[in-house]
Design goal:
Blueprint: E1 2-6, E2 25-28, E3 31-36, E4 39-44, E5 59-63, E6 72-76, H1 80-89, E7 100-101, H2 102-105, H3 109-124, H4 129-141, H5 154-191, E8 194-196, H6 200-207, E9 210-212, E10 219-226, E11 231-238, E12 246-248, E13 254-256, H7 259-274, E14 281-283, E15 287-289, E16 315-320, E17 325-330, E18 334-336, H8 351-362, E19 386-391, H9 398-409, E20 413-417, H10 425-441, E21 445-449, H11 452-455, H12 463-476, E22 482-487, E23 503-506, H13 512-525, E24 528-530, E25 554-556, H14 558-565, H15 571-587, H16 594-612
Parallel strand pairs: 19-22, 19-23, 20-21, 21-22, 24-25
Antiparallel strand pairs: 1-4, 2-3, 3-4, 5-6, 6-7, 8-12, 9-13, 10-11, 14-18, 15-17, 16-17
Length: 614
């Protein structure tokens, strides 16, 4: 039944209406006309032709809305066999006389052809018990529920499938013939790299393998993604707004998949699956903040079907340890971390102390991993972790020690300042637990810098201070990872912390020999050669630029090193002086020399003198 709304002057051919009063109804042939205030309601009844013959598997009805129009093709009167299978495709095929527009069935041609092929496979299969069970299950999935009942012989199932193949073949051949002019037009347009808007549904549905570069609404698809525990199939919706004429395929948000693009997407999918789970990686691209919390897990990620690799997304969720925020990252920009295994050698510290630290962290190499048991009977503390306190003046190597340990263990370094915590006990416990959870989840070496505020001694008159210390004691006691605490004021620590520390190391002021070694090492990192050193022997870090032009190679004599070592600078200041001198030399397009270093040294000494006399 069709409902048409027309104005009072409407005189559509072959549609009879009378000048009835409002709310009056009249009937003329097969049209019921009801006149309202300045409009008519015409209810035209389409007469359903009863299906009296069994030789036809369906009827094709051409319905004209007005004389001379092309008409709409509607399929009806389907055979019982077709009805069974079509009900598995369309949820609205349970009425008395279900119908379907021919245009809406055109995109289903590949599915119908696939069913026909599957029927042939099952009918040709050997009559083994497994094959017969599969055939019954297939027939049931295509509408023949009786096939589940083993009381029906195999011949019953074969007869249904044979009839279904015949009926579907007739239906598919008709749809293919109907689609042929449109297919030829579509093929010509695709060959020229363009497509009309009216052909989009046919083009995409019949190609049925597409990729997209933006989201919207109109076409639907399927994609897969990793949720931290498993791969999930998710629907994808995207839009192509209406446009006149043709449009280049390359300008569409969704386009047919080419073999070249499929190969790229498969390669990207392999990168994506390699990142499923928990990994520590380097990233060089742009990241988008993401509010969701990834779910770190133990064990291996499940295998992903090879044929679906191209359906995996371009980004993964992760945690940026530098910016301390969860983000999404492009998989093509993610690379393995290049660890500096020589960082430990550049740490200027008493050799015996270096051996002690390295030995302690060595036994924790596998203790906090996700595949092995924690070593809890070697390292002190209930958590079975390693808690180190590094105390001493600024620039003596405390932070570098934590960095060198992280490089040695090949783990990320998670640096936290006390400004990121809180002096309110309830807030501190929440934030500190969150930080420790992150460090544990990513198997990171945790460095809490300037921890004096958290560890300061309790007193009888400061209830909040006492609560603060109690919170830190309770939380740190159960940490299972490697934790470094740095401070310049170890004497203010509460005595209760002493038994919680695995080791406490004092970093003294650098003596003449230590400063000389530090100057040499930073000169080497900057590409400056000294008399008894031929270069850095390692890759240059991001804060140093190694000069590759032989004519630009700088040198520094032993006497010049001795002169610089006399200056009472700490390690961090020496690094900054070398970096500044190098920048000065690069700006002048000349090798770095003692003259450049002297300029920045004099500037630093002047500043320190003025600072001391303020």
């Amino acid at each position: 039944m069709c409902l048409h709304l027309h104005g009072p002057e409407c005189n559509a051919p072959n549609n009879v209406w009378k000048n009835a009063q409002p709310s009056e109804s009249t009937t003329e042939d097969d049209v019921i006309v009801e006149r309202k205030e300045h409009y008519l309601i015409r209810e035209q009844i389409w007469i359903v032709v009863p299906k009296l013959d069994l030789g036809n598997y369906f009827y094709v009805n051409r319905r004209h809305r007005m004389p001379g129009d092309e008409g709409d093709l509607v399929l009806s009167n389907f055979s019982e066999t077709l009805l069974k299978v079509l009900r598995t495709f369309y949820g609205d095929f349970y009425g008395g006389s279900p119908e379907r527009s021919a245009d809406t069935m055109l995109p289903d041609i590949p599915v119908l052809q696939s069913v026909i092929e599957d029927i042939g496979v099952h009918l040709r299969a050997d009559a083994t018990e497994s094959n017969i069970a599969d055939k019954r299950a297939f027939a049931a999935s295509r509408g023949c529920q009786e096939a589940k009942n083993v009381l029906h012989p195999e011949s019953f199932v074969d007869q249904f499938l044979s009839e279904l193949r015949e009926h579907l073949s007739v239906l598919t051949n008709y749809l293919l013939e109907l689609y042929k002019p449109k297919a030829e037009k579509l093929s010509l347009q695709l060959a020229n790299g363009c497509i009309e808007h009216d052909l989009l549904a046919s083009g995409f549905c019949l190609e049925h393998r597409n990729y997209y570069k933006a989201s919207g609404v109109h076409l639907t698809g399927t994609a897969y993604s990793w949720d931290g525990k498993s791969y999930l199939q998710t629907p994808v919706l995207f839009a192509i707004p209406f446009y006149n004429g043709t449009k280049d395929l390359d300008s569409l948000e969704c386009r047919p998949l080419t073999p070249e693009m499929e190969a790229k997407l498969i390669a990207r999918g392999r990168l994506y699956t390699a990142l499923s789970g928990v990994h520590y990686r380097s990233y060089g691209g742009g990241a988008n903040p993401h509010p969701l919390v990834p779910l770190p897990q133990s064990g291996e990620a499940p295998d992903f079907p090879e044929e679906h690799l191209w359906l995996l997304p371009s980004c993964v969720h992760g945690f940026n340890l530098t910016k301390k925020m969860r983000s999404t990252f492009y998989v093509t920009e993610i690379e393995p971390v290049s660890f500096d295994h020589n960082a430990w050698d550049h740490l200027v510290l008493d050799p015996a102390t270096k051996v002690l630290i390295k030995s302690l962290v060595q036994v924790t190499r596998n203790s906090n991993s996700f595949a092995s048991k924690t070593i809890s009977d070697v390292i002190t503390g209930k958590g079975g972790g390693l808690i180190c306190v590094l105390h001493g003046p600024p620039g003596t190597g405390k932070t570098l020690t934590a960095e060198a340990v992280a490089e040695h263990l090949e783990r990320p370094l998670y640096v936290v300042g006390t400004s990121e915590l809180s002096t309110v006990p309830s807030e501190l416990e929440t934030k500190l637990k969150s930080i420790l959870d992150i460090a544990t989840a990513w198997d990171a070496v945790l460095l809490i810098d300037e921890a004096d505020v958290l560890l300061e001694q309790r007193s009888l008159h400061e209830i909040e201070r006492n609560s603060l210390v109690s919170v830190v004691l309770r939380v740190l006691e159960y940490h299972r990872g490697v934790l470094f605490l740095t401070t310049n004021r170890v004497k203010v620590f509460d005595a209760a912390f002493l038994s919680r520390f695995s080791i406490a190391i004092k970093y003294p002021e650098h003596d003449l020999h230590s400063r000389r070694v530090i100057w040499r090492k930073f000169f080497e990192l900057a590409g400056v050669k000294t008399k008894d050193a031929g270069g850095s022997g390692r890759s240059t870090p991001t804060d140093m630029v190694l000069l590759e032009d032989p004519s630009q190679v700088a040198t520094m004599s032993e006497a010049e090193l001795d002169e610089l070592a006399e200056k009472p600078f700490n390690g961090r200041t020496i690094k900054n002086l070398v970096r500044t001198a190098q920048a000065l030399a690069l700006a002048s397009n000349e090798p770095m020399s003692k003259a450049h270093v002297d300029i920045v040294v004099r500037s630093q000494e002047k500043f320190l003198h003025e600072f001391a006399n303020v």
